[in-house]
Write a structure and sequence with these properties.
The chain is an alpha+beta fold. The chain has three helices and twelve strands, in the order H-E-E-E-E-E-E-E-E-E-E-E-E-H-H.
C-alpha cells in the first residue's frame, strides 16, 4: 500500500493539474469575432464564432447587437443551412454620410435561430458570417454584445467590455479592432475588400479573403500553442509527482 505522504503528493499533483486545465479552459470558450481586426473605412467579412460550453445542452440561438454609436450602413448575413437569420434596424438620431448619401437607419441587431432539430451540440462550435461596412474611421474598435441561448433555457450574456489594466471579464463581448487604412481605392474602401463584394452579401474580394484566412490561421496557431503549453504543464506536473512517488518507494525499500 502507498504511504500517506505518497498519497498526499499524488493528490496535490492531480489538484495542480486540474487547476491548470480549469484556468486555461475559459480562454477557448468565448464567443469571438474572427478575424479580430479590420481596416478603418473599408468593408470586411467576419465570423461570429460560438463554442458550446454546456455539457448538457445545445446552442439554439445567437443574438448579436451592433453598435449604434458607430452605425454600419451595409450589413449582410450569409445563409447558414439549418439556421434562420433576422435583421432588426433602428432609426439613427443623426444621419450618416455613405458615398455622399444620407443614411437614416442602421442594423441594430442580428438574430440567428436554429431550425427544429438543429443545434450546436456539446463539444462543437458554429460560425455565423456577416459582411460589414463601411467601417468607421473615428474608432479603434467595435464592440458586439452577444446573447447565446441554449435549448434548456439558459442564456449566456457576452456583454462585458474589457478595460485597460484590468483582468479580462468572465463574459467578454466580441470585439473587432480597427486599424489605420494602409491603402484605398479612391472610394473610401480599403484594399481589404471590394465594395461590390461586401455590399451584395456574397462575400469579399480576393485580398480580403487572403487576409481573413491568414488572420484565422494565426489565431488557430495561437490557440494550438496555448493548448500544447497547457498539456505540457499538466504532463510536467504529473511527471514530477510520479518521480517523487518512485523516489519514496525506493527509499522505503532501502530502509526495509
Amino acid at each position: 500500500m502507498r504511504s500517506l505522504p505518497a498519497r498526499r503528493t499524488a493528490a496535490v499533483a492531480l489538484a495542480a493539474a486540474a487547476a491548470v486545465v480549469a484556468l486555461a479552459g475559459p480562454a477557448f470558450a468565448h464567443v469571438t469575432v474572427n478575424p479580430g481586426s479590420a481596416e478603418q473605412g473599408g468593408y470586411t467579412a467576419v465570423d461570429f464564432r460560438v463554442p458550446n460550453e454546456n455539457d448538457a445542452a445545445g446552442t439554439v440561438k445567437l443574438e448579436v447587437n451592433l453598435p449604434l454609436d458607430h452605425p454600419l450602413a451595409s450589413v449582410r448575413t450569409q445563409p447558414l443551412p439549418g439556421w434562420t437569420s433576422t435583421v432588426e434596424k433602428a432609426k439613427l438620431d443623426k444621419p450618416i454620410k455613405v458615398h455622399g448619401n444620407d443614411v437614416n437607419e442602421a442594423v441594430a441587431k442580428i438574430t440567428w435561430t436554429a431550425d427544429a432539430g438543429v443545434k450546436v451540440a456539446p463539444g462543437q462550435f458554429q460560425e455565423f458570417r456577416v459582411s460589414l461596412g463601411p467601417l468607421p474611421t473615428d474608432a479603434d474598435a467595435l464592440v458586439f454584445k452577444a446573447l447565446q441561448t441554449y435549448d434548456n433555457g439558459d442564456v449566456v450574456r457576452w456583454i462585458d467590455e474589457a478595460k485597460d489594466g484590468q483582468p479580462e471579464p468572465a463574459k467578454p463581448a466580441p470585439v473587432l479592432k480597427l486599424t489605420k487604412a494602409t491603402s484605398a481605392d479612391g472610394h473610401g474602401v480599403t484594399a481589404s475588400a471590394t465594395p461590390s463584394a461586401a455590399a451584395d452579401g456574397h462575400g469579399t474580394g480576393h485580398g480580403d479573403a487572403a487576409k481573413n484566412d491568414a488572420a484565422s490561421d494565426d489565431k488557430a496557431s495561437d490557440s494550438t500553442a496555448r493548448v500544447l503549453g497547457v498539456v505540457g504543464i499538466v504532463v510536467g506536473v504529473i511527471g514530477t509527482a510520479v518521480g517523487v512517488l518512485g523516489l519514496r518507494r525506493r527509499s522505503g525499500g532501502s530502509a526495509s
